[in-house]
Design goal:
By secondary structure, this protein is α+β, with helices and mostly antiparallel strands. The protein folds into 3 domains: about 120 residues, Acyl-CoA dehydrogenase/oxidase, N-terminal domain (Butyryl-Coa Dehydrogenase, subunit A, domain 1, Orthogonal Bundle); about 110 residues, Butyryl-CoA Dehydrogenase, subunit A, domain 2 (Beta Barrel); about 150 residues, Up-down Bundle (Butyryl-CoA Dehydrogenase, subunit A, domain 3). It has 11 helices and 9 strands. The strands form 2 sheets. Strands 1, 2, 3, 4, 5, 6 and 7 form a 7-stranded mixed β-sheet that branches. Helix 1 packs parallel to helix 3, helix 7 packs antiparallel against helix 8 and helix 9 runs antiparallel to helix 10. The N and C termini lie far apart (about 50 Å).
């Protein structure tokens, strides 16, 4: 594809020029996103991270850029590919993992839950408003005593009383929950033991969300502990096409590859800061970029980034073709996050002691990587998903 069609430059860290595989319209949209992030998000990212606050002023502009529900035909701005959506997640991650995670929750988890599990009426009621940023969503699956074993271990219950459901239980690590308007709560139906989804507005009596304090990673993300104490939800707010954990798993399958792309973005953010620092930092009479050991760290970082882009490009392409399975998104997430963790460590090393302060550009990525490494399926669980696919044997317990 000719690069003259668009003014969007390739990232220097896209060493093998993968982005040239996008359509001109996708490149244009990606360029608009990058321009906004560079102008409006990068300058404030460190201060909001340090204060553990979320920049809510970014919600509406990101909606205008089409970042909420780009895969959902009802609300997407234009026809696009899973590969494009991966690059969007990468661009977001390389500037601010917190804002990236907000979009992952709003769009990938909350909106996709409604798109996959909701009735036509529910989709029409909620998705356009969420796509415009008028309604903020959250996704309530993880619990204090249930994380990787959510398929079997959910303790939050749903009990039907006529045309009303009564929800009781607790959720933990729920992103966006302190300021969300609606939370998709996954609960086990006491009648049939199946996991079902419910749209719970946060002003419902019995619903409380308390911010989790003192995090060392993703401080910008407003994670909360949720308590559901006799929360009453009408049948019309039960996701009508979500009658088992298979629906929940389908949502996670859609988002897991994008988390892998987000991890690449975080690695790139750290790499770019380390590279800039190496070019400017003078030691022994010359820039440290001219020292062999520093170049080794930078090249190994770039190799990790390039390998991860290659893997995720194919995983997303398979999703576009309808042949991507759980095992493919699981491998992408496990590989990209492991390489991200390795890369941000090397980039911190390039900066030496300066690498632990925010204003040198690596420290925030270094810290945020720890959360991305674990959420949406740990490396161990994703490895077991792939292991089951290649051996035919489940080894989860």
């Amino acid at each position: 594809m000719s690069t003259s069609i668009t003014d969007t430059p390739l990232l220097e860290s896209d060493f093998y020029r993968f982005q040239e595989g996008l359509t001109p319209r996708e490149r244009e949209s990606l360029g608009q996103l990058r321009a906004y992030l560079e102008a409006e998000v990068r300058p404030i990212a460190d201060q909001y991270w340090a204060r553990a606050e979320f920049p809510t002023q970014t919600i509406a502009p990101l909606a205008e850029l089409g970042m909420y529900g780009p895969s959902i035909p009802l609300v997407r701005h234009f026809e696009n590919s899973a590969v494009f959506r991966g690059w969007a997640a990468l661009e977001l991650g390389r500037i601010d993992a917190g804002v990236s995670t907000f979009i992952g929750v709003q769009s990938g988890l909350a909106m996709n839950s409604i798109a996959v599990g909701g009735s036509d009426e529910q989709q029409q009621e909620w998705l356009p408003r969420m796509a415009r940023g008028e309604v903020v969503g959250a996704f309530g699956l993880t619990e204090p005593l249930s994380g990787s074993d959510s398929a079997r271990g959910l303790r939050t219950t749903a009990r039907r009383e006529g045309e009303t459901w009564v929800l009781d239980g607790e959720k933990r690590w729920i992103g966006n929950a302190t300021f969300a308007d609606v939370v998709v709560i996954w609960a086990k139906d006491v009648a049939d033991e199946q996991v079902k989804g419910f749209l719970v507005t946060t002003d419902t009596p019995g619903f409380t969300a308390t911010k989790i304090e003192d995090k060392i990673a993703l401080r910008t993300v407003q994670n909360a502990d949720i308590v559901l104490d006799g929360v009453r939800v009408p049948e019309s707010r039960r996701l009508q096409r979500a009658d088992s954990f298979r629906t929940t798993a389908a949502v996670l399958r859609l988002t897991r590859t994008e988390v892998a792309w987000q991890a690449i973005g975080i690695a790139i953010g750290a790499y770019e800061a380390a590279l800039d620092y190496a070019r400017e930092r003078i030691q022994f009479g010359k820039p440290i970029a001219a020292h062999q050991m520093v170049q080794d760290l930078l090249v190994r970082s770039l190799m990790n980034i390039t390998a991860s882009i290659a893997l995720c490009t194919q995983a997303s392409a398979m999703q576009d073709q309808g042949i991507g399975g759980d095992e493919h998104s699981a491998m992408a997430k496990a590989f990209a996050t492991a390489k991200m963790r390795e890369t941000v460590g090397w980039c911190r090393e390039v900066q030496g002691g300066n690498g632990i302060v925010l204003d040198k550009g690596v420290a925030r990525f270094f810290s945020d990587a720890e959360a991305i490494y674990s959420y949406e399926g740990t490396r161990e669980v994703n490895t077991l998903i792939v292991g089951r696919a290649i051996t035919g044997q489940a080894a989860f317990v």
